[in-house]
């Protein structure tokens, strides 16, 4: 039985946290695309953005995502919040041979979770909640287009979300 799953969603929606626990439960490797990108780039994403620009970053992100999608074997892949912006990334995710789950959270829920996080360039603006609302409006249709299932992350605990995804994967296999 194949155990392969990718997680997409807004920054702060829980992709890395849920992904780590899901991978543990499935007994498969966990790959955080942003973390892997930083290893490949030899710098933080924020530094790379500042030095080379968003277009250069998005190109490297697309290359790595395509590589990972084509890599055989079981895994849980957590993508960066902006990975769905490129059409080829959405195609890579859907062609990657596993379920793609959209961890959906409202901008208000995300803001509550990450408002004190100074490492997120996204929030280093005058009105971070308004920025989250704008990003959500732009990206929600793209997350939906790039995923097989939408998992609402509003109130549930991480373990409840993992259980919800596990049930979805089980139903898919039966």
Describe the structure in your own words.
- The structure is a single chain.
- With 174 residues, this protein is α/β, with parallel strands linked by helices.
- It is built from eight helices and five strands; from the N terminus they run βαβαααβαβααβα.
- It has helices at residues 15-26, 33-41, 45-52, 54-70, 87-95, 107-114, 128-145, 158-173; strands spanning 4-8, 30-32, 75-78, 99-104, 149-152.
- The longest helix has 18 residues, at 128-145.
- The N and C termini lie close together (11 Å).
- The model has no long low-confidence stretch (mean pLDDT 91).
Helix share bin: 55-70%
Shape: globular
Radius of gyration: 15 Å
The percentage of residues in β strands lies in 5-15%
Number of helices: 8
Low-confidence stretches: none
SSE string, helices as H and strands as E:
EHEHHHEHEHHEH
Placed side by side, the strands forming the largest sheet appear as 2-3-1-4-5
N- to C-terminal distance: 11 Å
Q: How many strands in all?
A: 5
Task: Write down the overall mean pLDDT.
Answer: 91
- Class by alpha and beta content: alpha/beta
Most strands sheet: 5 strands, parallel
